[in-house]
Known about the structure:
Protein name: Methyltransferase type 11
Strand order of the largest sheet: 3-2-1-4-5-7-6
Number of strands: 7
Helix content: 40-55%
Keywords: Methyltransferase, S-adenosyl-L-methionine, Transferase
Pfam families: Methyltransf_11 (PF08241)
Region (SAM motif I): 70-79
Region (SAM motif II): 133-141
Radius of gyration: 18 Å
Amino acid sequence: MTNTLYQQIQQFYDASSGLWEEIWGEHMHHGYYGKAGNRQVNRRQAQIDLIEELLSFANINTLENIPKNIVDVGCGIGGSTLYLAEKFQAYGTGISLSPVQVSRATERAKEAGLETKVKFQVADALNMPFEDNTFDLVWSLESGEHMPDKTRFLQECYRVLQPGGTLIMATWCHRPTDGLAGDLTADEKKHLKKIYQVYCLPYVISLPEYETIALECGFKNLRSDDWSSAVAPFWNVVITSAITPKAIIGLLGAGWQTIQGALSLNLMSKGFERGLIRYGLISATK
């Protein structure tokens, strides 16, 4: 990961994570609103529902397939890590590029009484500081879009996964380009470029491209799905909550980069509406 991109991602989340937690809570990811996106549920419950739906998608909720040692790649302030560790009574490790996120996640683990089972550390997902075959669940929830080398990222996920273990990845994608719609248009590329600039993304790829990379890395029993409709309502919910007095005051104190991110929320909303932004899932085993 280049130093410049590393610094941009770190600074973005160092500056914005505190405000996100204050306004939107501990889960820094999309919510699930039913397969068609029409389920009426509050934002926090939708985010928890997303976790549960992902576990169900990967067949992790069965008694025979309960993880004991989990790594959360791109852990934010520990929302998913702590949820999964508590749910399965498992050991959890979360990694992030943001020291602010790691510090807050560590505090939250202590507050939850999970400090002996869950730990957080600053680490690069392209060079994870773990031995081969360490974890029986690699969890990556909306971090793949930040990776400048998607192949290296999935190779690392494969390396640290135990034989028989499971990868669950959900990530921002662009629409497939191997169908009738063809290659991305100039206007679509322009839209994506604006999102990249705001949210510190090097680039995104399509779900079929992720499938190809995962199989080339050696993953087996691969399942994939597009949950764009199920998560798309999330952005309008966030936009609405961002214009409250509390959020506006928080934004003013969080710095220009965070303000710019808030002002650009409609880029994601419009991206989903036009079918350009997709929410891709992959579940696979080693």
